[in-house]
Amino acid sequence: MAIPAEGVDAIKTFVVDCVLESGGKSCPPTIVGVGVGGTADLCVHLAKQAATRRWLALRRPRGRSWNRPCPAAVNQLGVGPQGLGGDATAFAVHVETAATHITMNPVAVKHAIAIRPARARDFHPARHRIRV
């Protein structure tokens, strides 16, 4: 739970601290999903949705304003690919928000491995015959 009086800067600091703490264990470069607000279980669900969302699909205007400074701050950590150093720690930081009570401000961070879709085609059908 973040303290509401600390504002958005506390959430950004929490995200950067989580990425720094995970280091190379999350197999960077990753896509970082952040869930803010709601109840604790909804917040974790929002973080998972944000981490698996398409890169350019920014649905909420508030999340759009947070998505600019967060990747720069995360990439300045120097964790780099596979934790070996560099400036590509995260491809993107997506934020999803939900309505919450002012005294309760849950924040969740989820790392998603950047899955790159690809296709492979085998042009030799004789290799794949099933023999009974």
Key features?
132 residues; alpha+beta; single chain
Describe this structure in words.
The protein is of the alpha+beta class and 132 residues long. 30% of the residues lie in helices and 17% in strands. It has helices spanning 8-22, 40-51, 61-66, 69-75; strands at residues 30-36, 90-97, 107-113. It has a 3-stranded mixed β-sheet. The longest helix is centred in the N-terminal third of the chain and has 15 residues, at 8-22.
How much is the average pLDDT? 79
Are there runs of 5+ residues with pLDDT below 50, and where? none
In what range is the share of β-strand residues?
15-25%
Structural class determined from secondary elements: alpha+beta
Task: Please provide the ordered H/E string of secondary-structure elements.
Answer: HEHHHEE
Largest sheet data: 3 strands, mixed
Helix content: 25-40%
Number of strands: 3
Span of the ends, CA to CA? 60 Å
What does the overall shape look like? globular
Strand order of the largest sheet: 2-1-3
Question: With helices defined by DSSP (H or I, 4 residues minimum), what is the helix count?
Answer: 4
Determine Rg (CA atoms, Å). Answer: 18 Å
Secondary structure blueprint with pairings:
Layout: H1 8-22, E1 30-36, H2 40-51, H3 61-66, H4 69-75, E2 90-97, E3 107-113
Parallel strand pairs: 1-2
Antiparallel strand pairs: 1-3
Please summarize what this structure is:
The chain is α+β, with helices and mostly antiparallel strands and 132 residues long. Helix content is 30%, strand content 17%. The chain contains four helices and three strands.
